[in-house]
């Protein structure tokens, strides 16, 4: 499973396995779902409140919070934005 692009991404970056550790704070992180037959890499919000990906922090209703939850296998902090030139 995977391919050259997947192998390149996994070697060149500091990906963290969700099985090993989840983010400590809610926020947007770069994510990969390696359980699919193709590479899916997205910036996704992580909810520390619900310990889930693409979950809503602002609700106390767990069903509502998890309505659009996504499966993620690896994550990393988003890279810094490029500096503005000029």
Structural class by helix and strand composition:
alpha+beta
Residue share in β-strands: 15-25%
Q: How would you sum up the global shape?
A: globular
Cα distance spanning the termini = 44 Å
The proportion of residues forming helix, as a percent range, comes to: 10-25%
What is the ordering of alpha helices and beta strands?
HEEEEHE
Radius of gyration: 14 Å
Widest beta sheet: strand line-up: 1-5-2-3-4
The residue ranges in which pLDDT falls below 50 over 5 or more consecutive positions are none
Query: If you average the pLDDT, what whole number results?
Result: 88
Separate helix tally: 2
SS elements, strand count:
5
Largest sheet properties: 5 strands, antiparallel
Describe the structure.
This protein is an alpha+beta fold. The protein contains two helices and five strands; from the N terminus they run αββββαβ. It has a five-stranded antiparallel beta sheet with strand order 1-5-2-3-4, with no helix packed on it. Strand 2 (27-32) and strand 3 (41-47) form a beta hairpin.
Write the layout of secondary structure elements.
Elements: H1 4-12, E1 16-17, E2 27-32, E3 41-47, E4 52-53, H2 62-65, E5 74-77
Short description:
The protein has 86 residues and is of the alpha+beta class.
Features:
single chain; 86 residues; alpha+beta; five-stranded antiparallel beta sheet
